[in-house]
Design a protein that fits this description.
The protein is 53% helix and 7% strand. By secondary structure, the chain is of the alpha+beta class. The chain has a domain at 119-335: Up-down Bundle (Glutathione S-transferase Yfyf (Class Pi), Chain A, domain 2). The radius of gyration is 24 Å and the shape is globular. This is Glutathione S-transferase 1-1-like isoform X6. Keywords: DNA-binding, Metal-binding, Zinc, Zinc-finger. One of its GO terms (biological process) is glutathione metabolic process.
């Protein structure tokens, strides 16, 4: 543990026995960098961090306990330049002159995402909002502990789930004991926490972020509700297609087509969480056999998303396939 006894470095084999205050200081620097909002003022807090396998040794930061998937996440996100300076100073402090050229891989510590325990995701595979979260997690290379809920059997009304989410909706995540629901809120949270300072998925620039927010609000407030109002009464209620509702949906698709005029993605040349949210909706509309041929910009963007959204097949297409099965089942029931 931090500040106690000797520790052998898995990188160079040195066994060191150091003054507590120096080791404690190093641990504080590392903890504050990885978890800037944490309170790292006590030995107990740092020992708890150590116990979660974010390991320190007496001479070097030791990542030997990381699993391969953890290493992949560790290597994904860029550390800001000021952290490089900290690491350089620590390297000078930690290594003896004879070890100055010790093999501390710059790349192994050049990126960081401090996720050791998987985030719980309560979800239903066919749900478009749930697929939004799956797409965002895939783009961030986050590990999810999937917890499917059967809404038809009322599993979302079980007491344990109601304690997490009184609205009993999916998707719901639990991240280090913190529950959160609503797919777009979850998307923003995940990128803000795990996306790194330079993540383009939800840009820091005020105007760029505002445009992403506008597209997200368009999805949740206009496009998806208009689709739901038109299509779900037919599938789940056996209703007839409503011409007025269809016209409103078509109007929303015209808007999206206009957003994409002359642009690669919905806010410009870079993929954002707005694209991931909207593609979950558009793929659902497509699965409902509502033609997109009148909206060429949407069609072109949709095909692009299938190849550029990270892990699209697992994060979205599998859920679409489940949605199609559900549609077929519900139609069979209403035709009896």
């Amino acid at each position: 543990m931090v500040g106690k006894g000797s520790v052998k470095c898995s990188k160079c084999g040195i066994t060191s026995k150091e003054d507590f205050s120096l080791t404690f200081h190093r641990a504080q620097v590392w903890a504050k960098f990885c978890f800037p909002d944490g309170d790292w003022t006590s030995n107990e807090s740092l020992e708890n961090l150590n116990a979660q396998h974010r390991m320190l040794c007496g001479n070097h930061f030791d990542d030997s306990s990381f699993t391969s998937s953890s290493r992949k996440r560790l290597n994904k996100f860029a550390i800001p330049s000021e952290a490089q300076s900290i690491l350089s100073q620590l390297r000078e402090e930690q290594c003896s002159p004879s070890r100055a050229s010790h093999d501390i891989q710059e790349t192994s510590m050049s990126k960081v995402n401090p996720v050791e325990m998987a985030i719980d995701l309560y979800f239903t595979a066919g749900s478009a909002p749930c697929r939004v979260v799956l797409l965002v997690a895939a783009a961030l290379d986050l590990q999810l502990n999937l917890k499917p809920l059967n809404l038809w059997e009322g599993e979302q009304l079980q007491a344990d789930f109601l304690k997490l989410n009184p609205q009993h909706t999916v998707p719901t995540i639990v991240d280090e004991g913190f529950p959160l629901w609503e797919s777009r809120a979850i998307s923003r949270y995940l990128v803000n926490k795990y996306g790194g300072d330079s993540s383009s998925l939800y840009p820091k620039d005020l105007m760029a972020r505002a445009l992403v927010d506008q597209r997200l609000d368009f999805d949740i407030g206009t496009l998806y509700p208009r689709f739901a109002q038109y299509f779900y009464p037919q599938v789940f209620g056996g209703g007839k297609p409503d011409a007025a509702s269809l016209k409103k949906l078509e109007e929303a698709l015209v808007f999206l087509n206009a957003f994409l005029e002359g642009q690669k993605y919905v806010t410009g040349d870079v993929l954002t969480i707005a694209d991931l949210s909207l593609v979950a909706t558009i793929s659902t509309i497509d699965a409902a056999e509502i033609s997109l041929k009148s909206y060429p910009n949407v069609e072109k963007w949709f095909e692009l998303m299938k190849t550029t959204a990270p892990d699209y097949q697992n994060a979205n297409q599998k859920g679409i396939d489940e949605f199609k099965k559900l549609i077929a089942q519900m139609k069979a029931k209403t035709e009896l």
